[in-house]
Batch of 2 targets.
Target 1
Amino acid sequence: MFIRWSAAIAAAVLLSSPALLQGASAADKPTDPQIAHIAYTAGVIDINAAKQALKKAKSKDVRTFAEDMVRDHETVNKQALALVKKLNVTPEDNDTSRALSKQASDKLAELDKLSGAAFDKAYVANEVAYHKTVNSALETQLIPSASNAELKGLLQTGLKIFQGHEQHAEHVAAELK
Amino acid sequence: MMPGRVATIALAVAFLPMVVPAHAATIEITMENLVISPAEMSAKVGDTIEWINKDVFVHTATAKNGDFDVNLPPKKSATFVLKKAGVVDYYCRYHPNMKATLKVEP
């Protein structure tokens, strides 16, 4: 199951580098420490993307969106850290987290070369795609795999927030056209 | 004390209920897990709405018609006194999926 879910998320974000999947864990499904790590990593990625956007974006709507991303994802990650501490769980790095991070740093470098309206469009388009991928992973894999009830609850709250982000990103993307 | 003054005070006391409407109430509305509840609430002009944000996220109660825009920091509450009658749809500016309606009677 973990391989399949890794494949699903990574294939969506890593169309060009399927080789990265080869080291995927053989476990049936991600464990809670792995899920915590993936969810936290996914949040950090979006915060970094938003911080780049706050430096480069010109459109007011795009900047407002990026501010929302920083605020909400930092809040969720703060909750996640408090929860793993409370549960005495150490988030465990894994191939999915590594694949996500690698893809994200490539994307940051790619977007860094753009400016003005081209940057705004590319950033928002990536936010739509990224939230779609993460939300679908949360819905179909991470939430069902989570065994701790509090972790599951936090992921569910996260999903609700991130679905709002996906809609917001789609709305901004439509406005930019 | 002059009798006239007593009469004035008595009159003021007698009319007090008209000045401060007896039905003025504080109505609590909760924001929890990105849901506003109750989503539909009836109230009267003069009533106080108290929104209680139980989430760790910042929310707002923002009227679509511009009547109010109340900021709700995480785990805090805030109030607004209804001044106008009418049906007011409101939402959270940061999480627009959070929507609710106030039916304000005169």
Note: Chain B has one domain: 22-105.
Target 2
Amino acid sequence: MSDSPTENPSSASARIKVEALAQRFPAPDGDDELTVFSDIWFTINPGEFVCLIGHSGCGKTTLLNILAGLATASDGTVIVGGEEVVGTSLDRAVVFQSHALMPWMTVMGNTAFAVKSKWPKMGKADIQKHCQKFINLVHLTGSENKKPSQLSGGMKQRVGIARAMAIEPKIMLLDEPFSALDALTRGSLQDELLSICSETEQTVFMITHDIDEAILLADKIILMTNGPEARICEIVENTLPRDRTRNNMHTHENYYPVRNHLIEFLVNRSASFQEELSSPDYDPRHPPVVGPTAESPGEVRARA
Amino acid sequence: MSLPLRTRAVILSVVLFFAFAMLWEVSLGKGTGSAANMDPEYAALMGATAKGASAMPGPLEVGAQIWDHIMDPFYDAGPNDKGIGIQLGYSILRVLVGFGLAVAVAVPLGFLIGMSPLFYRALDPFIQIMKPVSPLAWMPLALYTIKDSIISSVFVIFICSVWPMLTNTAFGVASVRKEWLNVAKTLEVGNFRTAFQVILPAAAPTIMTGMRISVGIAWLVIVAAEMLVGGTGIGYFVWNEWNNLSITNVIAAIFFIGMIGMVLDLCLSYLTKLVTYSE
């Protein structure tokens, strides 16, 4: 932990390696165990924006909680910057699905709570200044002294993002942050997140249900099969250029190949993946990487 | 009627008050009292002969008495004749001391019970058995062990205030939203800071509700406790005036007990509002 908020968040120590991760819970009936997911391997490189897509019940949130250090995996390890994850860390900030703001604190108070946790010795004025920077970043200038109950759903989630960004984490973990918002608000928040992350080269791992959200934001989309016993089916590389925006991305020739590939996965393959699993080509350590383009919509490019 | 609801309510309250006072006055049947056909000695014993009427005062007498008390609340003319302000002061002091001690015990203990499922289960049977016991049942035990009637009454207040606060604090702490605790955890906030900056404010409205219930019960119990131990206090005052057969003073005391009870409740409700948050 450093004492000054000046380090570069996209250093090599932001690399996340997930190895042989599995989560099992005791089944409600008998002594059998219920395997939520197993043999999960993937890597997130520094500065990368990675989305995880899968149906409800495949253990996405559990996986994120393990990355955050809030939950412990039954098997396997998570390595961040060369060190195994044991418990939570201020290097990994979490944006919760339900914003999780403290209702008795103001916008400034909620952000300052996080900043004070990261830099306990920072002076009051410095904390204020530091928080203000991130409140401005999420366009909440003027609402510093409002309580969460006075804010709309989108504004609350903005505070959640400001609070996570304010501790300048190496990695941001977002658990379906926009799923409770209406389409318009979601759209503008996606744009903001995209511009913030490309500016700061933030490493991000985000869970989403929304295919377009994933195509807009992610460099890499991890597809998880249905639980129980969920696996990583594929890793889809986003073939759209990085300067894509919500307004122009659907005009790119690769948009529909990527989108159709993801929909095909969610509708059909996520459920019938057991057959693909038994194919000799499938190796959980190196799940297939595909990059659907207009020329080759579903060809496996490499093994991760 | 285009008057605001508030005004109409006040008017109705005043009307009801006067209707009650009239009914009270009329029901006394002034003049030919029941003493007329009583044995004279029994009538004297009942204090009814002097006026030839019942000892039951009318609303005007009670009003005048209350006014006298308000004008001179703090006189002290010996152990059996103290101003009502002094008596109420003793009672309030005992309630505050007993209640304060209960806060000091119940809030930290409630925190522990709320945070630890083990303690929650382990202490639950004791709490469930102790909670329904009338606080006055503790009085003989308190008198025997403490050997001081004043401290015993404070102890009784303590024991009756402790339970609502204990259960409410434990409940409030146990039901703090998991996500707020997760936020604190991901920010690596220490236990001490989590307790004071997350759990305490989150549970504060529930804790304050427990305190409000407690102070109400304490004020109910102090009257009965002071009737038992005697000496000073509003409960002793009521019992003493009963022995003096001054029903006027008994009714006046009832009025003052109600007023103080209301003020205590208002104070706690104000404090509860201060810590309440909306989501």
Note: The helical segments of chain A are 60-68, 107-118, 124-137, 153-166, 183-200, 211-217, 255-269, 273-277.
